[in-house]
């Protein structure tokens, strides 16, 4: 595993309506690793993820991908940034007026300008890999929450991103359905994708994380390996948070 | 009959209960029909025996007059249909363009946004009939070369401008009804703002506003009769001519029947679409 920095987040500030959310947050995400963000609701996990793929613009600081692409620079083509970074949301956000297959091929055909045939073949391959091939021609309203979330993962993967962001992707799910979605993430982890995920699934975080970051007061309060952060947290705020969620 | 074992994969309704439900449905239907027949009989009796009924019947429901005027009314109605068929697509195009113009954010398009807003404010605020008068009598009076003086042209144009403003607002509401998370998901795939509108927001917006749009169609279909004030022989004008020739109002009733024959199916269709889309939305839920 290479340990080169793949995402370099440096002193990022972000506020909403005069309310600071990120307060000079810095974080390095190594290539081919899984970074897990934990922290209380409202601590800025979603905001940070959305800043990484430029769905939000930062107030100050920089986010550099692969030492060359500064997401926060004024001249950066944001659509180009988003092409390299996939994101999966808590609420799936599938396009309800499109069949599963169309949801997945929209990006590849319209953004990557692949042929319909090529992108459908690739989409079917991905759907098969995630056990969803039978759902290809269904509309999203025919899917269970777990299936919908896995389709959302496939939709992001179809863009062949270098980085995947996951924002509490199991929080809206029935407990029975959490497992199948986490299995999908596990599989991606084994494939060596660089990923950053916000989650409340602590046992899953422990299992999958190369790096765990506890967000508090708008910065990374404490970071380390899963064992370090979960088993022997150094700071009282981290201990308190872990006690509350366990 | 035996009760199936608990856990059997079947629908089981107690036979006594099923019989009771069936009986109730039958007696409900009987009571309903009887009540309706009774009500109609009473109305017919009361109305028929009242002293004025014969005059009313002669003036509004005169069979001979009806037979005489109806073919002409139908023929004249064809003009209403043509006005409708020409106006409706234009209204949809104008409505959509104006709604879109009001959503663009780039400062260079500020004039377009201002114009679109003014258009909606003005044409929604002025009665349709006034716009018809204004354009239908005003424009030909200018006697400018190149400006048509045809009443049908200006009547249709007035309807298009008036309804365009309403439909623009319907579309705008539709665009607003698409959740921002849909835009975020589309942008996260690298789609441009234009592509996001084109493939994600607009299709859902149009689907969400189909029922109110159909209601506007129905309303427009009736309002084609407003063009009568400018003189073209459409169905209302035809009925008016026939009426004043014979001092009998049956042709108006005939014209009304023609409109109803068209609006009732359209209304039922709109209801059906509405129910269907409501059901879809419920099923869609989280997506
Ligand atoms: N688009 C927004 N507009 C205004 N406030 C926002 C917006 N997004 C997030 N916030 C606020 O920022 C804070 C952090 O939110 P968020 O990043 O969603 O936290 P988390 O994902 O850790 O729960 C919250 O107080 C939230 O209300
Ligand atoms: Mg969040």
| Most residues in contact, chain pair and counts | A-B, 31 and 23 residues
Give the termini distance of chain A in whole angstroms: 31 Å
Number of domains of chain B: 2
Rg for CA atoms of chain B: 27 Å
Strand content of chain B: under 5%
CATH architecture of the largest domain in chain B: Orthogonal Bundle
Q: How would you characterize the largest beta sheet of chain A?
A: 6 strands, mixed
Low-confidence stretches of chain B: none
Class from secondary-structure proportions of chain B: mainly alpha
Helical fraction of chain B: over 70%
Distance between the termini of chain B: 45 Å
Biggest sheet layout of chain B: none
Give me the count of strands of chain B.
0
H/E series of chain B, N to C? HHHHHHHHHH
- The CATH class assignment of chain A is Alpha Beta
Q: Say how many strands of chain A there are.
A: 10
Plain-language structure description:
The complex is a heterodimer of chains A (246) and B (287). Chain A has 246 residues and is of the alpha/beta class. Chain A has a single domain, classed as P-loop containing nucleotide triphosphate hydrolases (Rossmann fold), CATH 3.40.50. In chain A, 37% of the residues lie in helices and 26% in strands. Chain A has helices spanning 45-52, 78-84, 100-110, 116-129, 145-157, 175-190, 202-208, 226-231, 236-245; strands at residues 5-16, 19-30, 34-38, 60-65, 69-70, 85-88, 163-167, 194-198, 211-216, 219-224. In chain A, the strands form two sheets. Chain A has a six-stranded mixed sheet with strand order 6-7-8-3-9-10, with helices on both faces. In chain A, strands 2-1-4-5 form a four-stranded antiparallel sheet, covered by helices on one side. In chain A, strand 4 (60-65) and strand 5 form a beta hairpin. Chain A is globular, with a radius of gyration of 18 Å. Chain B has 287 residues and is mainly alpha-helical. Chain B folds into two domains: 9-46; 62-284, MetI-like fold. Chain B has ten helices and no strands. The longest helix of chain B has 39 residues, at 63-101. The model of chain B has no long low-confidence stretch (mean pLDDT 90). The A-B interface holds A 50, 53, 55, 79-80, 82-83, 85-87, 89, 91-97, 106-107, 110-111, 140-141, 143, 145, 148, 155-156, 159, 172 and B 181-182, 184-192, 195, 199-200, 203-204, 207, 280, 283-287. Magnesium ion binds at residues 45-46, 167-168 of chain A. The site of magnesium ion (MG) has 4 residues of chain A, from helix 1.
């Amino acid at each position: 595993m290479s340990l080169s920095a793949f995402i370099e987040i440096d002193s990022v500030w972000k506020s909403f309506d005069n309310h600071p959310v990120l307060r000079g947050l810095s974080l390095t995400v190594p290539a081919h690793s899984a970074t897990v963000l934990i922290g209380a609701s409202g601590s800025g996990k979603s905001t940070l993820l959305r800043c990484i793929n430029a769905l939000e613009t930062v107030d100050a600081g920089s986010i550099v991908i692969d030492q060359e692409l500064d997401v926060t620079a004024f001249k950066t083509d944001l659509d180009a940034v988003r092409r390299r970074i996939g994101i999966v949301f808590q609420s799936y956000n599938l396009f309800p007026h499109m069949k599963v297959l169309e949801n997945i091929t929209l990006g590849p055909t319209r953004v990557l300008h692949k042929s319909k045939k090529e992108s459908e073949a690739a989409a079917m391959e991905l759907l098969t890999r995630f056990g969803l091939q039978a759902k290809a021609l269904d509309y999203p309203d025919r899917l269970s929450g777990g299936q919908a979330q896995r389709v959302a993962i496939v939709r992001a993967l179809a863009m062949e991103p270098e980085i995947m962001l996951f924002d509490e992707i199991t929080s809206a799910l029935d407990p029975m359905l959490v497992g199948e979605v986490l299995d999908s993430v596990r599989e991606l982890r084994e494939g060596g994708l660089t990923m950053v995920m916000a989650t409340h699934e602590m046992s899953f975080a422990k299992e999958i994380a190369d790096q765990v970051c506890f967000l508090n007061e708008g910065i990374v309060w404490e970071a380390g390996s899963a064992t370090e952060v979960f088993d022997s947290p150094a700071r009282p705020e981290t201990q308190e948070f872990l006690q509350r969620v366990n | 009959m035996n009760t199936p074992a608990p856990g059997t994969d079947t629908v089981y309704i107690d036979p006594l209960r099923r019989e009771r439900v069936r009986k109730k449905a039958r007696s409900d239907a009987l009571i309903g029909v009887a009540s309706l027949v009774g009500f109609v009989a009473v109305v017919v009796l009361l109305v028929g025996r009242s002293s004025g009924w014969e005059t009313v019947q002669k003036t509004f429901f005169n069979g001979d007059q009806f037979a005489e005027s109806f073919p002409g009314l139908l023929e004249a109605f064809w003009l209403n249909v043509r006005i409708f068929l020409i106006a409706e697509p234009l209204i949809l195009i104008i409505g959509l363009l104006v709604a879109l113009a009001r959503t663009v954010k780039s400062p260079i398009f500020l004039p377009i946004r201002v114009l679109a807003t003014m258009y909606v404010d003005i044409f929604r605020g002025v009665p349709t009939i006034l716009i018809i008068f204004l354009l239908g009598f005003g424009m030909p009076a200018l006697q400018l070369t190149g400006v048509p003086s045809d009443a049908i042209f200006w009547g249709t144009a007035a309807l298009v401008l008036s309804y365009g403003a309403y439909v623009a607002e319907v579309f705008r509401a539709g665009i607003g009804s698409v959740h921002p998370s849909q835009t975020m998901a589309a942008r996260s795939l690298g789609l441009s703002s234009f592509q996001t509108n084109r493939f994600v927001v607009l299709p859902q917006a149009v689907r969400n506003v189909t029922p109110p749009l159909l209601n506007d169609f129905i309303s427009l279909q009736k309002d084609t009769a407003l063009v009568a004030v400018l003189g073209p022989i459409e169905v209302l004008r035809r009925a008016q001519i026939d009426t004043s020739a014979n001092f009998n109002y049956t042709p108006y009733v005939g014209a009304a029947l023609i409109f109803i024959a068209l609006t009732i199916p359209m209304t039922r269709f709109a209801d059906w679409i509405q129910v269907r889309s409501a059901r879809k939305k419920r099923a869609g839920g989280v997506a």
